[in-house]
Structures are given as structure tokens and as C-alpha cells.
Design a protein that fits this description.
The protein is an alpha+beta fold and 222 residues long. It folds into 2 domains: 65 residues, lambda repressor-like DNA-binding domains (434 Repressor (Amino-terminal Domain)), CATH 1.10.260; 134 residues, Umud Fragment, subunit A, CATH 2.10.109. Helix content is 24%, strand content 29%. Strands 1, 2, 3, 4, 5, 6, 7, 8, 9 and 10 form a 10-stranded mixed sheet that branches. Strand 7 and strand 8 form a beta hairpin. It is rod-shaped and about 90 Å long.
Length: 222
């Protein structure tokens, strides 16, 4: 639109809301004479004024500067916008549910999930012992490794059970540490199990937003 057309539009919107030039000037933080100049088409409003006008008139910013017929619809997606369906995904097995609190049975259940990152398997968190870093129902993507650095988070199989914890090594076993201080460390003795195996490390996760869990995080875990 030309400055005159912009001015006419500003005046029409102002009058439709029953505002005087002085009242509009006060709301957009300019002088009354500036509003008069905008409406007369003698001055084009600057960007910050356009934003203020859009807020007062409750319209998009572009509606202050352009007529509807001047706005061309977007007919194609910009090259830098990548649809999620086109992102690299791979199908990986869900190895079972991993306890965030007490260990639960982690047998192969024959289910698969599309992982958005390179990984070997996925697990679902149950319980809040690894909160707030991992929450119930998080799907955690795992890269299989034979060993982990001291204190790293890992999925550990204890016979047919699986847990996700910080791993600390001892001569006779492992100490598995939770992030949530409400949970005591788990002292795992090698002699108590037929097989203790580090399965892998988390490389990412998917979280479904749940207001009740978010509220608990804001209040803090004690």
C-alpha cells in the first residue's frame, strides 16, 4: 500500500474502535501529531510503530502495510524447512520396559519403533528414579556398547532384568545410581546373577508432554 492508503487504513481502524488520535497516540507511544501525519499519508510508520498498531488493532503486522490482495500465499515450502517425515529414521527394536524405579522384566517383546537418530534399540522408562533427566514413558534410544566410563548412564541387564542407571564399578560388582535422590543406590554383586551385562548408552530420547509430570518437575523432586 502507498503511505496514503496506509493512513486511510489506520484512520478507518481507529474510528471503528472509537479511538481519538490522542488515544491512539498514547497506546502506540507516539505524539498525536505523528498519528495525524500517518493518517494524512505524509509519513509512513516505522517498524516498531507498525508492531504497536498491529497490537492495538489486533491484526497481523502485515495487515498494516499490505492489502489482502497484495499478500501472496506460500505455494512451496522453503528449502531449509524439512518435513519430519523426510528426516532420517530407522526402525529399531523395543527391548522392553526399563525401570526408572525397581527393575522390571525386560524381555524381547517383538515391537519396533522409528528412531530419529542412529541407534540400535529403544526402551521405555517406567518410574521416576532417573527424573528429571528421564521421565516415565520417555522412549530412550540406545547405542549398544560393551563398556562405559565410570559414572556414565547405561542400560544394564541383570539376568533378564534391565535398568537404566549411572554405573560405578567395583571388584565384586556394580553400584547403580539414580538421578532422583529419593532412590538409594543399588548394590549389584556379580555372584548374585548368572549374567550382568552393560547393554548400551542413551543417545537421545522422545518425550510426550504430560502436564502433571511437568508440574512435578517445576516443584522439584525431593
Amino acid at each position: 500500500m502507498t503511505p496514503k492508503e496506509i493512513g486511510e487504513m489506520i484512520k478507518a481502524r481507529r474510528l471503528s474502535r472509537g479511538l481519538t488520535q490522542a488515544q491512539l497516540a498514547s497506546r502506540i507511544n507516539v505524539s498525536e501529531s505523528a498519528v495525524a501525519m500517518y493518517e494524512a499519508g505524509r509519513r509512513k510508520p516505522k517498524d516498531h510503530v507498525v508492531e504497536a498498531l498491529a497490537d492495538v488493532f489486533n491484526v497481523p503486522k502485515l495487515a498494516i502495510l499490505y492489502r489482502e490482495d497484495e499478500l501472496e500465499p506460500i505455494t512451496s515450502t522453503p528449502k531449509n524447512v524439512i518435513p519430519i517425515s523426510d528426516l532420517h529414521q530407522q526402525k529399531v527394536p523395543m527391548i522392553g520396559e526399563v525401570a526408572g524405579g525397581e527393575p522390571i522384566y525386560g524381555e524381547e517383546i517383538g515391537l519396533f519403533v522409528n528412531a530419529p537418530i542412529e541407534c540400535d534399540a529403544a526402551v521405555t522408562i517406567k518410574g521416576d528414579s532417573m527424573a528429571p533427566n528421564y521421565l516415565p514413558e520417555d522412549i530412550v534410544y540406545i547405542k549398544c556398547v560393551p563398556d562405559v566410563p565410570e559414572g556414565a548412564v547405561a542400560v544394564v541387564f541383570l539376568d533378564d532384568e534391565a535398568v537404566i542407571k549411572h554405573v560405578y564399578k567395583r571388584k565384586t560388582g556394580l553400584t547403580l545410581w539414580s538421578d532422583n535422590p529419593d532412590y538409594m543406590p543399588m548394590q549389584i554383586e556379580f555372584e548374585d546373577y548368572n549374567r550382568v551385562r552393560i547393554f548400551g548408552v542413551p543417545v537421545g530420547y522422545t518425550r510426550i508432554f504430560k502436564p502433571e509430570i511437568a508440574s512435578k518437575i517445576r516443584k522439584g523432586f525431593h
